[in-house]
């Protein structure tokens, strides 16, 4: 099972990083919001077909939460696409990895989950790394698109936190949750686009590739989190950073600065340590509950 989860996680990292390359290529001709709309459209058609084949129907419960999850995820995806188009692939990918940290914080605030002891220093390290990357004190190197990437990470975290609330009730299929996300992501992409641009020539092929890759990558990501533990899943999310950095160098002649590398390494170490603390805390809480029930 663990080996299967490892394969799923590596595939999802490779596929999402590859999709980001096509998003950046397409972004020279097509607005990011329109790309998000197209991705949502392709994904919606694919998931609805799967739901029809499997006989999965839309339920009447938690529609408000499902729509909220979709809106959070949809606008988060738009922000991610905007950052990918206007920033280096590596920089945008690293900043979007702060999603895990926002999930950690939102879980404590809204789901009332306890914060493990010792987490404070790792959160401070991540905050420092983000400040180094964004560099808000330098007029020459500061980019507002870095803040867009962080906003996208926060919205994605809000979506994941909402999913956890929904999943605790156990009344919804993963495909139904995905369908709400993809449908509302089309709406988010439409709202975020001032003027739609008619794709030309190879643009249509790239749009189809983005849509196809995103659906398969999403399935792989879901499989990874189902079949492996939190520490491994957190570690493998950062594989996408290195793949994106390689793609950025290969296709866009991008280079990594020393500060970006150091910040990325610091965020990676801190994120893995937070995941370990969270898992250890969950195991400890489970043992306490078992002892009380004896």
From TrEMBL:
Membrane topology: Multi-pass membrane protein
Gene Ontology cellular-component terms listed: membrane
UniProt entry keywords in alphabetical sequence: Membrane, Transmembrane, Transmembrane helix
Transmembrane segments: 36-53, 65-86, 92-110, 122-138, 144-163, 175-192, 204-228, 235-252, 258-277
Sequence ranges assigned to domain EamA in this UniProt record: 4-134, 148-274
Annotated localization: Membrane
Alphabetical list of InterPro entries matching this protein: EamA_dom, EmrE-like
Primary location recorded for the protein, binned into one broad class: membrane
Family in the record: Belongs to the EamA transporter family.
Name of the protein: EamA/RhaT family transporter
């Amino acid at each position: 099972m663990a080996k299967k989860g490892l394969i799923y996680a590596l595939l999802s990292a490779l596929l999402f990083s590859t999709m980001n390359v096509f998003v950046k290529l397409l972004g020279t001709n097509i607005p990011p919001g329109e790309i998000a709309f197209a991705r949502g459209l392709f994904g919606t058609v694919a998931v609805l077909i799967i739901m029809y084949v499997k006989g999965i129907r839309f339920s009447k419960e938690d529609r408000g939460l499902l729509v909220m999850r979709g809106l959070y995820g949809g606008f988060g995806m738009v922000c991610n696409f905007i950052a990918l188009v206007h920033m280096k692939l590596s920089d945008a990918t690293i900043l979007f990895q702060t999603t895990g940290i926002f999930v950690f914080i939102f879980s404590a605030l809204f789901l009332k989950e306890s914060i493990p002891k010792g987490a404070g220093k790792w959160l401070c390290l991540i905050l420092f790394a983000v400040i180094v990357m964004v560099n808000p004190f330098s007029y020459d190197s500061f980019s507002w698109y870095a803040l867009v990437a962080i906003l996208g990470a926060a919205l994605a975290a809000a979506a994941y936190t909402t999913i956890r609330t929904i999943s605790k009730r156990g009344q919804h299929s993963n495909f139904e949750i995905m369908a709400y996300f993809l449908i509302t992501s089309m709406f988010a992409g439409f709202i975020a686009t001032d003027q739609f641009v008619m794709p030309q020539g190879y643009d249509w092929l790239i749009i189809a590739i983005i849509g196809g890759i995103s659906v398969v990558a999403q399935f792989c990501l879901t499989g990874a989190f189902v079949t492996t533990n939190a520490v491994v899943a957190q570690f493998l999310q950062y594989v996408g950073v290195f793949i994106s950095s390689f793609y950025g160098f290969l296709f866009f002649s991008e280079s990594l600065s020393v500060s970006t590398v150091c910040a990325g390494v610091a965020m990676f170490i801190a994120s893995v340590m937070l995941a370990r603390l969270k898992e250890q805390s969950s195991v400890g809480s489970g043992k306490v509950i078992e002892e009380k029930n004896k």
